[in-house]
Design goal:
- The complex is a heterodimer.
- Chain A is α/β, with parallel strands linked by helices.
- Helices cover about 35% and strands about 20% of the residues of chain A.
- Chain A folds into three domains: about 200 residues, Thiamin diphosphate (ThDP)-binding fold, Pyr/PP domains (Rossmann fold); about 160 residues, Rossmann fold (3-Layer(aba) Sandwich); about 180 residues, Thiamin diphosphate (ThDP)-binding fold, Pyr/PP domains (Rossmann fold, 3-Layer(aba) Sandwich), CATH 3.40.50.970.
- In chain A, β17, α16 and β18 form a beta-alpha-beta unit.
- In chain B, about 25% of the residues lie in helices and about 40% in strands.
- Chain B has two domains: about 80 residues, ACT domain (Alpha-Beta Plaits, 2-Layer Sandwich), CATH 3.30.70; about 80 residues, ACT-like. Chain A, domain 2 (Alpha-Beta Plaits, 2-Layer Sandwich).
- The chains are: A alpha/beta, B alpha+beta.
Chain lengths: ~575, ~180
């Protein structure tokens, strides 16, 4: 059987056999895979693994306060560095606390390896102390999972996990290591190369025939649109996409995960599309005759009612994962392959289509339906707060969001110009993601300006790790848009449940005091005139996190909005209150 | 948990979708948990599994699953793509419509008195079933064939009173040199 091999293993690490414990073999594998950082939390079944980690000077272990943070931080680390992120936990409760982060990584295709301790092999299945069926639990939420059943297979299982997590469409891989295997000494053989069965890593190079067909379709297009998803970021294809779009002058809309795949500051950018996308992106995609979808999966938050989505369009769909093509919308030209390769090939063959009327139409929509809000009085509008952060950080921050209204406003108002500078939980929509992912991003990019835009609800799901951020002296900026409620839920209850506000209002702590108690800087902002000085002050803090809590208008709703399961025809463009 | 994920609307199933039986052959590495991984992909799309037969192949490290399913073809296509992504899956083949040999085995234990025995033996002869156990009150038949043959003998045996029965599920190979 043909097998694909990879130079995953570090150059110079030749195949060797060594006598050591399973825990030491794990560390040897991590070295060979080039791991420099682990986010984790120890516990009983993980003791032998942690004992080996004690001697691993080349690996820094970030001790989190809750394992969910370890998983989200590994995602954040992966997103900004492009390297596989690693999180580690003990058996049972340690592993189950990783679940949300692992599920998020699968939905948003993040390359993460999760290593979990397990009870000893003889105790598995006996309801032993801190035992959980982690393989059973994680099977549907991992790209792959494996339990090490015999010491001899540990190196192959671990190295394969890194290969699987990082290649093709990235995703989370879990390796479960029983305690006895981690403690016992054995002969370990470390392979020079790791192989996967052929076909498990999709071919990077797309079919030339399909590229030619796509180029022919684009050439004749009168109303073309590029619909770019997260695959453009993970495939490192932003430069190729930008080159193609600028040369052919095809407008680009990016999904929530695709932000950064094409500069939103470019006149060709339509911003984000979908449920809370710009009106002009949604009008354009629904009027398009040819849509070039790249690394996108026609998510329901993008398409609304599928049967009414872009009904007049023919689709070219580029994806490294063949299972995505045709899943929700049939593709007229399916292209399986690496986004970078496919876009480069397409760029070489596609002359700019003649579509001046289309550009005029798009410009008219942009002029007529801009994103807007009205900042009046002392109460801060959340959109205004985000625009201020954008202005004062000169748009060059790595922005990490949590989930909810603030996430959508951030997507709308914090324009993203570079890949790997926008981190969010898109598919899973996991509240509690923002701060931990920012922590992981700052560890991965120590010199970068990392700003987390959070809501008061989501922040409280994982804020205990302020302790970790302070301990590591991370100069994170956490801007908490505090509307005293679970804003998105409140908005839906207002619009679709006759203002029956069921359990959405929060009695919040004094976040500044809380931050100070942890040793971070805490600032509370209530009035408009306090906002700029507070943001400026936060940007001056270099040795610890700074939490700026901004009291925002609790009644503000997020628009435009295409209600769930509906189409562009039902789009609510903006709040009645801001019309002239 | 989150505001932006309150309702997940599903496309209404369209009347145009036709469902038919498919026979899927899945070669897998013999690893613990692979049965759950394969079955889980069908479960998640609420796809109806008629039968699932698993056994080791000529290669001891590889097992073959023959899965007979029924449902919308576009969902099946999606499931097959997802099956192909599982690391432990060696090969997936939808052999529906191929020239195949299909067999299933059933053991049927039914009420049989000395007066009904001969009748049952006659039925059993017509279907080339074997009597594999006989007591004062019961008879157990072993019958092999295509699934519809087993259905047919079952319908004839019902009136005697079937005490219990077990079917292996369909196993299939493509005829001739073409691999399954």
């Amino acid at each position: 059987m043909a097998r694909q091999t990879t130079p995953l293993v570090r150059a110079g690490s030749a195949a060797t056999t060594k006598r050591m414990t399973g825990g030491q073999a794990l560390i040897e594998c991590l070295h060979r895979a080039g791991v420099d950082t682990i986010f984790g939390h120890p516990g009983g079944a993980a003791l032998p693994l942690y004992d080996s980690l004690y001697d691993a000077r080349a690996i820094r272990h970030v001790l989190v306060r809750h394992e969910q943070v370890a998983a989200h931080a590994a995602v954040g680390y992966h997103r900004v560095t492009g390297k596989v992120g690693v999180c580690m936990a003990t058996s049972g409760p340690g592993a189950t606390n990783l679940i949300t982060g692992i599920a998020d990584a699968l939905m948003d295709s993040a390359g993460v390896v999760a290593i979990t301790g397990q009870v000893s092999t003889h105790a598995i299945g006996t309801d032993a102390f801190q035992e959980a069926d982690v393989m059973g639990i994680t099977t549907p939420i991992t790209k792959h999972n494996a339990q090490v059943q015999r010491a001899a297979e540990l190196p192959r299982v671990v190295l394969q996990a890194f290969l699987i997590a990082g290649s093709g469409r990235p995703g989370p891989v879990l390796v479960d290591i029983p305690r006895d295997i981690a403690s016992a000494e054995a002969e370990f053989e470390f392979p020079e190369q790791i192989a996967l069965r052929s076909g498990k890593i999709p071919p990077a190079v797309p079919s030339p025939n399909q590229i030619a067909a796509a180029a022919a379709l684009l050439r004749q297009a009168a109303r073309p649109v590029i619909y770019a998803g997260g695959g453009v970021i993970t495939g490192n294809a932003a430069a190729e996409l930008t080159a193609l779009a600028r040369r052919t002058r095809i407008p680009v809309t990016t999904t929530l995960m695709g932000k950064g795949g094409f500069p939103e500051t470019d006149p060709l950018s339509l911003g984000m599309l979908g449920m809370h996308g710009t009106a002009y992106a949604n009008y354009a995609i629904n009027a398009a005759d040819v849509i070039l979808a790249v690394g996108a999966r026609f998510d329901d938050r993008v398409t609304g009612r599928l049967s009414d989505f872009a009904t007049g369009a023919r689709f070219i769909h580029i994806d490294i994962d063949p299972a995505e093509i045709g899943k929700n919308k049939p593709a007229h030209v399916p292209i399986v392959g690496d986004a970078k390769e496919a876009l480069r090939a397409l760029d070489a063959q596609t002359p700019p289509p003649d579509c001046e009327p289309w550009h005029r139409q798009v410009a008219e929509w942009k002029a007529r339906y801009p994103l807007r809000y009205r900042q009046t009085g002392d109460t801060i509008k959340p959109q205004f707060a985000i625009e201020q952060v954008y202005r004062l950080t000169e748009g060059r921050a790595i922005v990490v969001t949590d989930v909810g209204q603030h996430q959508m406003w951030a997507a709308q108002f914090y324009l993203t110009a570079e890949p790997r500078t926008w981190l969010t939980s898109g598919g899973l929509g996991a509240m509690g993601f923002g701060f931990p992912a920012a922590l992981g991003a700052q560890i991965g990019r120590p010199g970068a300006l990392v700003c987390a835009l959070l809501g008061d609800g989501g922040f409280q799901m994982t804020l205990q790790d302020l302790g970790t951020a302070v301990e590591w002296g991370l100069p994170l900026k956490l801007y908490v848009l505090d509307n005293g409620s679970l804003g998105m839920v409140r908005q839906w209850q207002q619009l679709f449940y006759r203002e029956r506000y069921s359990h959405v209002f929060l009695k919040n702590p004094d976040f500044a005091k809380l931050a100070e108690a942890y040793g971070a800087v805490g600032i509370n902002v209530r009035r408009v005139d306090e906002l700029e000085p507070a943001v400026r002050r936060s940007l001056e803090v270099t040795d610890r996190p700074c939490v700026v809590t901004i009291a925002v208008d609790p009644e503000e709703n997020c628009y435009p909005m295409i209600p769930s399961g509906q189409s562009v025809k039902e789009m609510i463009v903006e709040d009645d209150r801001i019309r002239d | 948990m989150t505001g932006s994920a309150i309702e997940l609307s599903r496309e209404a199933p369209s009347a145009a979708r036709t469902s038919m039986k498919h026979t899927i052959s899945v070669l897998v590495e013999n690893t613990p948990g692979i049965l759950m991984k394969v079955a889980g992909l069908f479960r998640r799309r609420a796809y109806n599994i008629h039968s699932l037969a698993v056994g080791v192949t000529e290669q001891p490290s590889v097992s073959r699953m023959i899965i007979v399913v029924e449902g919308a073809p576009e969902i099946l296509e999606q499931i097959i793509k997802q099956l192909n992504k599982l690391i432990e899956v060696v090969k997936v083949n939808d052999v529906t419509g191929f020239n195949t040999v299909d067999r299933e085995l059933a053991l049927i234990k039914l009420n049989a008195t000395p007066t009904t025995r001969m009748e049952i033996m006659e039925i059993s002869n017509v279907f080339r079933a074997n009597v594999v156990d006989l007591t004062e009150k019961t008879m157990t038949l072993e019958v092999t064939g295509r699934s519809d043959k087993i259905d047919a003998i079952m319908s004839l045996l019902h009136k005697y009173g079937i005490r219990e029965m077990v079917r292996t599920g369909q196993v299939t190979l493509v005829r001739g040199t073409q691999p399954t």
